[in-house]
Amino acid sequence: MAEVTLGDLLAWEPRLRPASGFGPPSESGRGGRDAGHGANRELTWAVAARASPPMLPPMRGGELVLLPHRVLAESGVAIGPLLRELAAHGAAGVLLEAEAVPPGLRAIGAPLPIVVLPVGPVTADLESDLNRLLTQHRGELYRAGTELGRLLAGLTSVGADVGRVLAATADALGIPAEIVDANGQRLAAVGTESDGGRGLAVGPGTSGGGLHHEVLLSGGGRLLLGPVAAEARALARLAGERAAAAAEAALARAVETRPRGPARAAALAAFLAPLDGAVVDLGARAVTLGLASDASFRVAVASPELGPSGLQRLLAPSGTVHDATVLDGWPAAIVDVRDEQAAVLVDASPGRLLAFARRVEKAANPIAERPVWMAVSAPVVGPRPLPVAARQARYLGALLATGMLGGPVARFDHLRDVGAFRLLYDSWGSSDLAAFAADALGELPQRDRRGTLRQTLLAYLETGGSHVEAASRLRIHRNTLAYRLRQICALTGYDPADAGTRTLLHLALLAAALPPVPRG
Q: What distance in Å separates the CA atoms of residue 126 and residue 441, rounded to the nearest whole number?
C-alpha cells in the first residue's frame, strides 16, 4: 500500500487542485476533492523539468513532474508525447500551470493524472516547498506509525482482546474504528454511534465529512477507520495495516482460549445479564464465546423445578442449545435457531403448543409442588441483542413465576401468550409507568394492605364486569362484591361499573403488579 499518494499531497497543499476530467480515474472510485485523477497513485518526490537537456533527472517512479509553461514553450516538446513518455517512466502525475493546460488535452486522453497550479508560475521554490512538505509528513507518519506499532505490539504480547486493540487504535488516531465480520455484523466498535462515542477524543480525522478507510482481515472480516478527513488518510492507511494485524491476532487468540464447559456457561450468563453500569463490548465477547454473528437466537428461562438438563432436553429439537446456567435463580439457555423448522418456539399451532406444554410439565421433577413454566424471548439476529432477548425472557419468567401469566409456556413474540403485558413491557420499571399506576389507583394500594380489594377489582374486570362470575370466582356473596366495588370507587375515584374506565383500571392494576426489574 502506498505510503504517500497524490491525493495526500492535494489534501496537504491547498495551492494545488486536480484538473477535472484529465487523467485516469481514481482507483478508489469514491468522490471527494481528489477524485478522478489517480488519487491513490504512490508519490515519492516532486521534480521540475528544465528547458535545457536533460529536461529531467533520472526517474525511479512515483515522481510528480512539474512542467512550467516557460519550459514547455522553450523546449518545443508536444505535451501529448511528453505525457506518454513520463507515464512510461512511472511518473505519478504532472503539475501544470493553469494557462498551460491546452484546450485539446481531454481529446489526447492523458495517460497521467493532471494537477494544476491555479495561480502563479511553477517555480523552483514550489519544487522545494513540495519536497519539504513531503519530507515533513513522512517524518510525522514514521513517528506515529512507530508509536502505534509499539503500543499494539505490547497489547498483543499481553493477550489483549480485540476490543482493547480497537480502542487503542481509535484513541491514537482520534477517529472512530470498528471491526465487522464477513457477514457485516459488528464485532467491536469505538467512537461510533453503536457505542455512543465512548473513549474517543475527536480529532482532525473526523472533520469534513471524510470517507472510511477499509482493511480486509483474514476470514473475510473488515477493519473500518473513519470517517477520515483527506489530510489524515495517509496515517489511516499506515495505522490500518498495523491495527489489522493486531486485531487478527486477538481474534485468533479468542478462538484458541475460548472457555468451555461450566466456565462457558457462566460466561454466557454474564453475557446475557451484564452488571449494571458495566461497559461491555458485546461483539468482542461474542467472539470469545463462539456465538455465530449470523445466527438467529432465542433466550429461554424456566422454573427451577424443570432444571438445566430438563430445559436443554425440551429445547434440543429447536436448534443448538447453549447452557447459560441460571438467571434470577432460573435455569437459562440460548438457542441457536438458524435451522429451526416448524419448531414449537415459532409454531403458533394451538395443538403443537399444547403438546409442548405437556412435555414441559412432564419434564419437571415428579415431586414438584408448584406448576412448571418456560419463558422464551422473541428471536434476535446476531449475539449483540442477546441481553435484550434475555430481558424479555426474564420479564415473562417473573410473570409466570408469580402466576400473573397462566403458562406453562409464554413466547414474547406471540401476543396470545403474553396478552396486555406485552404493551407494558417497554415501560417496565420506568417512572412514567409507576406514575400512571399511582394516579389511576389513587389511595387503593395504601388502604388495601392485604390486597383484597385489588384482587376483587381484577376478578371483576377479567370477567367483563359480571357480578355473578366475579362473585363465583372469588367465592363471595354478590352483596359483598357490590360493597367492595363501592369501596374501590371511593378510593380510586373511578367507578368500575363504567365501561369507559375499565381499561384504565385494568392496565393500572397490571402495571402496579409487575415484578421489579432484575439487576444485572
A: 81
The pairing of strands 114-117 and 177-180 is: unpaired
What is the rounded CA–CA span in Å between residue 214 and residue 244? 10
Which class is domain 262-273+280-415?
alpha beta
- CA R_g for the chain: 35
Q: Which three cell numbers stand for residue 165?
A: 486493540
Question: How far does CA 463 lie from the centroid of its chain?
Answer: 46
Please identify, in words, the CATH class of the domain defined by 431-513: mainly alpha
Contact 424, 465 (CB under 8 A): no
Contact yes or no for 86/58 (Cβ under 8 A): no
What is the 3-state composition of the chain as percent helix, strand, coil, each rounded to the nearest 5? Answer: 45, 15, 40
Q: Interior CA angle at 148 toward 145 and 153, to 5°? A: 120
| Residues in the chain, total | 520
d(CA 216, CA 224): 9
Q: How far apart are CA 20 and CA 10, in angstroms?
A: 13
With a CB cutoff of 8 Å and minimum separation 6, the contacts of 125 are none
What pLDDT score was predicted for residue 372?
Answer: 80
> Of 164, 191, 21, 18, nearest to 94 (Cα)?
18
97: which 3 cell numbers? Answer: 500551470
Q: Residue 511 and residue 520: Cα distance in Å, rounded?
A: 22
Integer Cα distance of 411 and 395 in angstroms:
11
Q: What is the pLDDT of residues 123-177, one digit of tens each?
A: 889 999 999 999 999 999 999 999 999 999 999 999 888 888 999 999 998 899 9
User: Residue 376 has what pLDDT?
Assistant: 92
pLDDT per residue over 403-446, tens digit each? 888 878 899 998 988 988 999 999 998 999 889 989 988 889 88
Asked if residue 159 lies in contact with residue 253, where contact means CB atoms within 8 angstroms, the answer is yes
- Asked if residues 117 and 98 have their Cβ atoms less than 8 Å apart, the reply is yes
**61-70 burial, b if ≥16 CB within 10 A, otherwise e?**
ebbbbbbbbe
H helix intervals, 112-261:
124-157, 162-173, 233-256
Q: Which three cell numbers stand for residue 330?
A: 432460573
42 secondary structure, DSSP code: B
Contact 471, 478 (CB under 8 A): yes
15, 117 Cβ separation under 8 angstroms? yes
Which DSSP symbol is given to 475? T
Burial (CB count <10 Å: 0-12, 13-18, 19+), residue 279: exposed
Amino acid at 182: A
